[in-house]
């Protein structure tokens, strides 16, 4: 039976699906039961009370639990990089993102979002992927996410290479039907196959189109750039009805006006955010497997994610962080912050 691998250190012996504060967190993290609107929820501990190096390595030092029951949202790791076409290492992304998330706090003063005062959130650990069989890994991921989504929990995924978005969207479509997609990336990820294989990190969105997992009129791809094998590498996406926003169309400008158009395009129907860290310029995010020059800036990334405020976001992922190529951790730190921003734009989050 598939299960999410949650750290035993964060749960008491014999506990089944019940969160316990991570080691060293004392009473500053609460249990996972769904709370009344004015009741306390899980909170990342303050560094004024608990030292940042203390405790089990979970996302934002939240409690780790094995079951999504009782959660409104959860961070989930998918440590898979078997689908990479260049530099491997994204299997270590979830762990390093969690390490760097120790700097994150509970409130977003820039947007007024109060995610931990609005939602019950925990870390569900990692999906137990099969590193020796990519298709089997996709099956395991899909089954895990079907359970998460069925529980009414919105997953925020720490990747892993971009292959993982395909089985996640399979699970999403089973509950929501075809979803809209905001896809930030240097690459289209709509190839048909490579080396004879139809599943790898360059093909997820073509497979999603073929299986009717996407509402193609509500798909936007931002940050696309780089050399190509054809003069019109965007043809497939545009033929499906996707909106393709090239990186050079984003240079030296705010993306707030663009996101106003995206919000109108998405409407109130379910939509998913898939953010490949290589959408950003490698000057800011060198720790990735397929870097492309002249990408987006971190401030533009914030404008994109914050521009999703008010949309019906049913899931998010942040993929392709490969720590071996960034020994200082800046890429993972950026990824952790972007995941926090995604949490802040979920539909039930109160904004003051």
The shape is globular
Mean pLDDT: 91
Q: What integer value in Å does the Rg equal?
A: 19 Å
- Tell me how many strands there are: 11
Query: Which regions have little confidence, pLDDT < 50, spanning 5+ residues?
Result: 1-34
**What share of residues are in beta strands?**
15-25%
Ends: how far apart? Answer: 43 Å
Instruction: Kindly state the percentage of residues in helix.
Output: 25-40%
Please state how the strands of the largest beta sheet are arranged side by side. 1-4-2-5-10-9-6-7-8
Described by strand count, sense and barrel closure, the largest sheet is: 9 strands, mixed
Q: Which structural category fits the helices and strands? A: alpha/beta
SSE succession: EEHEHEHEHEHEHEHEHEHE
Could you walk me through the main structural features you see in this protein, from its secondary elements to its overall organization?
It is a single chain. The protein has 352 residues and is an alpha/beta fold. The chain is 25% helix and 17% strand. The chain is built from nine helices and eleven strands. The protein has helices at 93-100, 115-118, 134-150, 165-176, 204-210, 235-240, 256-266, 298-306, 330-344; strands at residues 4-5, 73-78, 113-114, 121-127, 154-159, 179-184, 214-224, 243-246, 270-276, 312-319, 350-351. The strands form two sheets. Strands 1-4-2-5-10-9-6-7-8 form a nine-stranded mixed sheet, with helices on both faces. β9 (270-276), α8 (298-306) and β10 (312-319) form a beta-alpha-beta unit. The chain is globular, with a radius of gyration of 19 Å. The N and C termini lie far apart (43 Å). Residues 1-34 have low confidence and may be disordered.
């Amino acid at each position: 039976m598939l299960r999410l691998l949650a750290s035993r250190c964060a749960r008491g012996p014999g506990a089944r699906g019940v969160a316990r504060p991570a080691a060293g967190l004392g009473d500053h993290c609460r249990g996972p039961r769904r709370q009344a609107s004015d009741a306390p929820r899980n909170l990342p501990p303050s560094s004024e009370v608990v030292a940042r190096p203390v405790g089990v390595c979970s996302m934002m030092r939240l409690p780790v639990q094995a079951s999504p029951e009782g959660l409104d949202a959860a961070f989930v790791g998918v440590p898979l990089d078997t689908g990479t076409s260049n530099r491997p290492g994204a299997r270590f992304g979830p762990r390093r993102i969690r390490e760097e998330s120790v700097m994150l706090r509970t409130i977003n003063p820039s947007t007024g979002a109060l995610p931990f005062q609005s939602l019950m959130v925990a870390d569900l650990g990692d999906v137990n992927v099969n590193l020796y069989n990519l298709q089997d890994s996709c099956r395991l991921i899909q089954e895990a996410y079907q359970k998460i989504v069925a529980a009414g929990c919105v997953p925020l995924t720490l990747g892993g290479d971009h292959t993982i978005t395909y089985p996640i969207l399979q699970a999403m479509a089973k509950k929501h039907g075809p979803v809209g997609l905001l896809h930030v990336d240097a690459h289209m990820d709509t190839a048909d196959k490579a080396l004879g294989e139809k599943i790898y990190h360059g093909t997820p969105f073509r497979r999603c189109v073929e299986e009717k997992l996407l509402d193609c009129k509500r798909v936007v791809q931002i940050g696309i750039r780089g050399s190509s094998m054809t003069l019109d590498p965007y043809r497939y996406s545009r033929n499906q009805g996707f909106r393709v926003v090239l990186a050079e169309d984003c240079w030296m400008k705010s993306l707030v006006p663009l996101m106003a158009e995206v919000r109108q395009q998405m409407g109130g129907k379910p939509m998913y955010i898939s953010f490949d860290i290589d959408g950003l310029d490698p000057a800011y995010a060198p720790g990735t497997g397929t870097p492309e020059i002249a990408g987006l800036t971190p401030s533009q990334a914030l404008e994109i994610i914050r521009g999703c405020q008010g949309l019906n976001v049913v899931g998010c992922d942040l993929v392709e962080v490969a720590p071996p190529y960034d020994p200082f951790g800046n890429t993972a730190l950026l990824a952790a912050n972007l995941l926090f921003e995604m949490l802040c734009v979920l539909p039930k989050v109160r904004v003051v």
